[in-house]
Amino acid sequence: MSVASPTTSTVSRRVFLVAGSALAIGVSVQAGLSNPVQAAPSSSPFEPNAFIRIDADGAVTLTMARVEMGQGIYTALSMLIAEELEVPLSRVRLQHAPPDAARYGNPRAGGGQITGGSNSIMGAWEPMRTAGAAARAMLVSAAAQEWGVAAAECTARDGVVHHAGSGRQLGYGHLTRSAARLPLPQQVALKPAGAFRLIGKPVPRLDAPPKVNGSAVYGIDVRLPGMRFAAVATCPVFGGTLKAVDEQPALALPGVRQVVRTARALAVVADHTWAARQGLAALTIEWDGGAGAGVSTAQIRQALEQGLERQDAAVAVSQGDVPALLTAAPRRHSAVYHSPFLAHAAMEPLNCTVHLQPGGCDVWVGTQAPVRARDAAMRASGLAAEKIRIHNHLIGGGFGRRLEADYVEQSVALARHIEGPVQFIWSREEDIQHDIPRPMYADQFHAAIDAQGRPLALSHRVVGSSILARVAPGAFRNGLDADAVEAGLGPYAWPAARLDYVRQEPMDGLATGWWRGVGPTHNCFVVESFVDELAVLAGQDPVAYRLALLPATSRMRAVLEQVAQQAQWRAPLRPPAGTSEPGARRGRGVAVLAAFGSFMAQVAEVTVQPSGDIRVDRVVCAVDCGMVVNPDTVQAQVDGSIQFGVTAALWGEITLQGGRVEQSNFHDYRLLRLSEAPRVDVLVLPSTQAPGGIGEPGTSAVIAAVANAVAAATGQRLRSLPLRVG
Amino acid sequence: MPQFELNGRPVDLAVVPDMPLLWALRDVAGLTGTKFGCGLALCGACTVHLDGEPVRACQTPVSAAVGKRVTTIEAVGATPVGQAVQQAWIAESVVQCGYCQSGQIMSACALLSQVPQPTDAQIDAAMSGNLCRCGTYSRIRIAIHRAASTGGTP
Q1: CATH value at residue B110
Q2: pLDDT confidence of A580, banded at 50, 70, 90?
Q3: Of the N and C termini of chain B, which has fewer Cβ atoms inside 10 Å?
Q4: Residues B92 and B120 in one domain
Q5: H or E segment and range at residue A562
Q6: If pLDDT is split at 50, 70 and 90, which confidence band does A13 have?
Q7: Model-level pTM?
Q8: A578-582, A606-610, B26-30: the lowest-pLDDT one
Q9: B42–A665 C-beta distance less than 8 A
């Protein structure tokens, strides 16, 4: 360990609230146990804080404050703790945190116990290292006391404390009892970056072994003695109710045990999922669509467009006299963009396993928001918080869908009528048709342009549903949804700018939710498309046009220059590949995004076939995301998030007719396949800045880069997603 | 009672013959490594081997397995190809959420069993029925090439 100018970190109360006696029920990710198990009590465990437990046998158990849904956070959090705790990663056992925002809240998410918004590393960077360093300091002190030497003469490495002078050493397991009696240190020194042994090095994912042999346990894999399986149907019209059903056709089938209902939904309970699905299919259910039964996407789009004309928008940014500049400018350019509803379509369909008893309620689920899941179970069961036990699991894809707890609330409400544990599984159709979709938006831009094509002023109006107003009403102030307008002006230094917002909800009963990339995903598409339009109008190169607009000190400049170089931006594109049809056109597009504490630029290359089919051939991405914890994960997240975004650019769209979703499964909600996946080259710029987020910016930026590439290929500007070449 | 060989052992599951193999494996035999994704053979998450051939368990009735060998993700690692693929998957850190990876690995193993050194076009053809929402496709391709180069053939 280096002693050169270590940074010190104050040990906050939050980090050091000692874990209570009720340990979380954990799933060993390493061992891949097929069932949740109660963590075995140890005779004298050392639990200096809510994240670390060391047992007398030397076993190290780390509690994961964030949830693992593919983004690699279990590995990264473990690296942060282990870096300072000085334990080998190969020996740590991981467990999911219980709902407890006081101990597991994310300081970068307003203290909420939330995994989302690409802020996990930002929020964990200092607290997790501090937790590890403080625990190590106590273990070192305990050894020093035992040996009667100064703690400063001792060092820790690989779970063992060494005394250099005498060559003596003691494993952490021998020190748990004495370390537990020591006071918590008030301050600890954190390693300087130059001394990192784990952070910044590519580390294999800790959750990979159980995920390649079938032993990883997701919520849908929970198996309990006597457990039954339930297939669920909710009124297909948003906001509608269950009117009538004859249960007999289902009950007549072998294996079907029960049909249970709520006001809006119904479940067939059976011995196995097949009988439950068969039972559901046998029913003729009468629904009452109610007021929503006439709503269509076209109507919602019309309402959004009306919002573009409203005079009472909430102003997010107002800088300079934009109206006067627009009136006086030699040239103006305006455009309206449309973004569709999007489904999350995670590969693991929504599911929730419930055992509701008079004295308490156990819920086995994969959730990005354990406290919200608990609160939903409280509402549905009528039980107090301390009677609810949320057993979290690995998540088979979240993307924002599992920030919601609607499926928990529905499952617990249905479970009120069922004896014993029951697993509720949504069909794929149910999952897509009762998603809480990313909102539709309409966006309008006006730009005032000088004689050389340079912008004098920009105005951007965002119209759409407010997720924030529903999820966190306190954060929705003066009619402004800060998420809906995030990154709404791009990273540019506009001479004058106005950004405003009009809330327009789609229909009663249809909640909208966060989707990968949150606010910046829709804003990056519209802002970067419009900036491209301005560059074309000015007759300028899109990269040069952007560089001229970026502030001189912006971290984006180097990122954009790097991506242009790496993508050979100024070299002519190769002609279409031999597999293309005659008449295929190619194009290259660029987009930049500053969001989630990271700075990203992408160049996409596309081929547009005469039929209109678009293929994304290659994406080059440069990113400055500050200091990197696990470079391998950063590469994987950028690549994967780009693939995720390509689906949205080319095909992603949920539409409504008669108040119900028209899509139902992967044949009409198309996802990118391996043969369609672009080659992605990722360039991570070295940085000494604080870490930024990396799970989402790739998705946000690629949609715009692809849209700009299609415009370059065809000369046709598409202002509506998904991209359809006419 | 449908009788077949499941991961090397004879089984006699007390299920109706038209039950899809997926639910028989997950809910009756207790093998949850095979995943439910779509129910219509559109996503490949439920891929298993039937006499070595990849099939979608959600659309394969148990009756179709009678007298045959069914291999799932829990046992595929016992074969040289399966072991090579799983090791390549770990070495390349392919997985993200991991939910689709059982099916990806089963499809990859079937491919490599028949084509020990597949081209990119052969990988495209064999793997494009397996959706991955996390977008791990680049690494799946690399890992298949890696598994091919490390042998895996008996």
Answers
A1: 1.10.150.120
A2: confident
A3: C
A4: yes
A5: helix A556-566
A6: very low
A7: 0.95
A8: A578-582
A9: yes
Residue of B7, B18, B27, B63 to mutate, interface with A, max A Cβ within 10 Å:
B27
Q: How far is A71 from chain B (nearest CA, A)?
A: 6
Cα angle: A261, vertex A262, A266; to 5 degrees: 40
Q: Averaged over A623-642, what is the pLDDT?
A: 98
Tell me which of 3.40.366.10, 1.10.3720.10, 3.30.365.10, 3.10.180.10 is the CATH number of domain A7-212.
Answer: 3.30.365.10
Reported confidence tier of residue A38, pLDDT bands at 50, 70, 90: very low
Closest CB to A70 among B31, B40, B98: B98
The residue count for chain A: 726
Assigned CATH class of A219-290+350-425: alpha beta
Domains in chain B, number: 2
How many interface pairs between A and B have CB atoms less than 8 angstroms apart?
A: 179
Output phi, psi for A433, to 5 deg.
-85, -15
Structure token digits, residue B133: 């929402």
* B13 and B2 Cβ atoms separated by less than 8 Å: yes
Q: What is the pLDDT of residues A180-221, one digit of tens each?
A: 999 999 999 999 999 999 999 999 999 999 999 999 999 999
Would an 8 Å CB–CB cutoff place A644 in contact with chain B? yes
Q: Which two tokens stand for residue A55?
A: 């047992």
Give the domain extent around B32: 3-75
3-state SS, A382-437, equals CCCHHHEEEEECECCCCCCHHHCCHHHHHHHHHHCCCCCCEEEECCHHHHHHCCCC
Above 80 in pLDDT, residue B2? no
Q: ipTM of this predicted complex?
A: 0.98
> Counting beta carbons within 10 angstroms of the beta carbon of residue A632, is it exposed (0 to 12), middle (13 to 18) or buried (19 or more)?
middle
* pLDDT at residue A18 in the model: 34
Closest to A230 (Cα-Cα) out of A281, A275, A293 = A275
Torsion over CA: A74, A111, A593, A559 (sign): negative
Where do the domains of chain A lie? 7-212, 219-290+350-425, 298-341+438-714
Tokens describing residue A90: 């190969």
